[in-house]
Amino acid sequence: MPLDPALRDKILASVEEGFAEQVAFTQELIRFPSLRAEEHACQDFVFRAMTERGFTIDRFKMDEAAIAAHPGGAPFSEFHSQAPIVVGIHHPREEKGRSLILQAHVDVVPAGPLDQWKHAPFDPVIEGDWMYGRGSADMKAGAGANFYALDALKRIGLQPAATVYLESVVEEESTGNGALMTHLRGYRADAALIPEPEYEMLARANAGVLWFQFEVRGIPAHVREMGIGANAIDAAYRVVAALRKLEEEFNVEKAGREHFENEPHPINLNIGKIEGGDWASSVPCWCKVDCRVGLYPGVTAKEIAQRIEDCIRAAARADSFLANNPPKVTFNGFWAEGYVLEPGSEAEAVLARAHESALGKPLKSFTTVAYLDTRVHALYDKIPALCYGPMGENIHAFDERVSLASVKRITGAMALFIAEWCGVESISA
Question: What's the CATH code, domain 208-336?
Fold first, then answer.
């Protein structure tokens, strides 16, 4: 049943009352430079915040063998984070409502050259409505909203009348193994909500993601005798050209795919990192290229991996040098399939009511070609997986920022959603 209007107004007023504290909490999260494998201190901060709120805490590391055995598990590499997953568990006095997973990731992508930032990337400066900082939008504002949506209920003497799992994960930006590990640990609920920066909309469909690296070995020589050498970097360019043709094939295949066929370019191949050579006056004998490519829901990572290997193999056979020196291909990160959130679930209906109450407009949905941890809950938990969050800009770019007014609106919607989905009970018996 929809919330009583008086209760709705009390909850939204409580979000407003606690918002200054929420902003300060989010700034503390941003101050942690929680890059891949460097999330330990941030996760300790989250652990303490959960402990202060009286949650039952589970802090655990990832199980590489269990992840490797799962079809959605991504390969580990030397760069894989060893930081723990932290789960705070709220148990009601009496289990009356529907259970819920609230999840956020604390890992952030590298900042890049600092001189191209308006403010230092881990200094959460506020200018007008915008809070700046790496991870401000993606997604430490959402992590803070998870806490403060629950705090808003507590401030008026209420708590969810169902089990709530507050999950803080890592590896969202590289493999998705952190969210998968919560599934493998056994955490299940009736719905999941992840407040990624989704422009105050609900993610209806989500592309999968695959990471891979190819390495070309050349023949070194002094540049005065370039003809006797083989330039590995030049050869890598030729492989990239072949992969671009494969990318064109993937995008032609959008035809007939609901949610994707009207996207102008739904499958993106990104040449994300190139390393090669040792000396400007030596013909380079090695080159490594790191890539990321998307995949449609319903298409397996294994299938796309095979097509990538076939593409590189065919390009090598057609190349006079690479035919005898084929590139080595390694899958070294995301191995994640996409999903579609089918409309009609009660969880989406509750979120729609909460959104309209807090924002004063109907909830819209959209397709995103980025990776989302909601794929774990949609594909493997088989539950409504709602990805919905605030307005952000410059995500993965310089001067990343999040709208504070939007964060407040979204936190209000989340608090209303929790109250209706889980039900509420008095904190004291």
Answer: 3.30.70.360
